[in-house]
Amino acid sequence: MEKQPETKNIMRKIIKRSLKYCGFVVVLVATIIFGCRCSTSKPTPDPLAGFHFSSLNNLHSNKVIMDDYQDYIQKLPPEERQYVGPLGFLEDDAGQHAVRIEIALNGTDWAHVLIYDKENKRIKAIKYVSGHYRS
Fold first, then answer.
1. Is the model's pLDDT at 3 over the cut of 60?
2. How far apart are CA 46 and CA 27, in angstroms?
């Protein structure tokens, strides 16, 4: 008869352990389900859709645009300004121009896009994440 209380203790221990592991499994499954769900947000539309590369001579001969994008770069925070990478000069069939400024900073590739109308007046300045890298 003394074995019955001992059996109850063993059963209690087994149940406690089972509940502990069951709780762990529930938390793990919840993390997987809610932490790995797919993003339904739309990708950033390309602000340069419809533009094509232009010759450097074409835009460098345009003093208004050249002065404006150089001024834009000078007004960037120092930590961004020191990592300014390649510049892209673009135009579209409507006579608009654009300058794409690439900056790689802390594992993130940033694109700054300056868009100019036919009269060379800046009409948009867009900054967005264009990619990521490992440093």
1. no
2. 40
